User: Fold these one by one.
Assistant:
Number 1:
Amino acid sequence: MPEPLHAKDRYMAGLDGLRALAVIAVVIYHLNSSWAPGGLLGVSVFFVLSGYLITDILLAKKEELGHFDLKDFWLRRARRLLPAMLSMLLVVIFWAALFGRDHLSAMRGDVPAALLYISNWWFIFHKVSYFDSFGPLSPLGHLWSLAVEEQFYLIWPLVLGIALYFGLKKGKLALWMLGAALISALAMALLYSPGTDPSRVYYGTDTRIFSLLCGAALAAVWPSRKLKPSVSQSARNILDLAGAATLVAAGYMVLKTNEYQPFLYRGGLLLLSIAAAVTVAAIAHPAGRLGQCLAWAPLRWIGVRSYGLYLWHYPVIVMTTPSVSTGPVSLIRVLLQVLASLILAALSWHYIEEPIRHGAMGRLWSRARVLVGKPGGIRKASAAGAAVLLVVFLAVFAVYHSPSANPSEQTATVTHEAAPPVNTQPAPGSEPTNVTEQSALGAAHSAEVAGHPAERGLVSGEGITAIGDSVMLDAKSELEKRLPGITVDGMVGRQMSEVAEVVEQLKTDDKLGEMVIIEVGTNGAFTSKQLQKLIDSMSGVKHIFLVNTRVPRPWQSVVNETLEKTAAGSERVTLLDWFSASEGKDEYFGKDGVHLGRSGSEAYAHLIAVAIHDQLKIK
């Protein structure tokens, strides 16, 4: 996360405004807002800013001193970044120990990875998805981006110093940087596989460094200290137009893209980085008016505190959002989460970041030395040191003595409640995709649940195949009770690609039923192309039922929209709206908000059985 740049002669306040817009987008994304699904793109803007500001500082120091003072540079980075992060880690650990031990167990390996700034590689090697996961979330999942930046801070001064040592001029240097950026973006495109979890290319330093290099290349040809305010009116207009256009383009991507679109990983993030670099260039130029607009005081206030806001917002959101919440998003909760994040960021800035930037560490060390020289000083210093060690020990003890978390074991505890009538009306604003869907979705309202043939085992399940993930597995016994003879194939963690493999195997074994129920999407999104290919592969199946999902994660809406659009395009496909059927029914779910309890399994099986019953009647 870049810091505000206070160069020797200039302070570019507009960059604080841009930083504010970027962190606001990220916060909205983590709040799971449906109107800004591309809010995660704010991280790419941060990367471009970091690349520009750090390279600008390094090149200015090279001109001023004739060399890089690497020790001073790295110490400044450590003083800027470490204290605030350490404070956040300690508070979050103790908070989790007291109020959220499930989160604490998820943090076990994340804490040392965060301290070493290798969170991104830790998540990659341990297959921790940024997108496709549920169960206890780690409040430290957002620190991957700080790891990417810190790795850049460690390596980039060395690479830049070597390039300058061998006499590479700034123009050629910028071209080399852009070439390296293209290689990084190409690596992202080649490693990305559509329809699968993109976390590997999203986390990787190798596949994200192109954004930092775009900013660095800009610094080589657009040094902030050499930009003059006196330019022609036409040049000023071009500067403003380019900056505004690229800022609007970036905003459009935030509003219209999501993390599952192949476009992002096949050039989209590179285009965004180039657009962000143009925006930064327009803001950094003293003749530009865009920088003046973005220097608006409220934006500057947020931008200056953006590092603390980034640090704090994610753990606040993760640890205060209930795992089970089937009703509408609580506006009050969201506002309180935002307010708490802003307050914590302000406290971090006022009491930690700003004092340390102005020499608080040195003053503290001087006071400690004076204290030791006074009578009883050694005892006081020892007591203070012991207190610090005790806090650290307690934090380590809390993390490593928490119960282990295994998301695959977070299945709901089964209770034995009677299943109430299921609300199977379509989601607000959507119409049934065909007559069969209307019949299936309205069945629970047209008869008493207990008396319906589907509830009395009077509907045969022979020739019916149900394929899904752990949610289908949860409902297996209830489905077999209502549809005797049904074949249920559920597996924990199953993705769309695996469903396609199961279908092919069943076809090969001549065991695929005349009716097929597909439930997938609990563990991540998939593309319309993948789903349509799956449906086309079942050309011999008379009718297909697609069950949509309820999972408190960003991909829920992506999955459900894909299912709805695909069902609307075929007469032999029916959408079963589990999302609407389970709305407001927290009692249906276990503590992860995804897997089904007894009443949830009964309601889920009832929805499917009624749809099968009505489809058989139509036949």
Note: The first helix runs from residue 13 to 30.
Number 2:
Amino acid sequence: MSDERIESQWWFNEKTHAVEQGPQSPQRDRIGPFETREEAQHALDRIKANNERWDDED
């Protein structure tokens, strides 16, 4: 992945609950990358929904 592409993507910072464009914080604190800011804003909702779906499959 090119540096330009990485810089244009979005992450959700799990520690601060902030949305960041480009990798601004340590990797251990970030969820992503996401294509849009909105997707990153809903990272925790997506994780919760996936966990619930996987629990239902078990």
Note: Residues 3-57 form one domain.
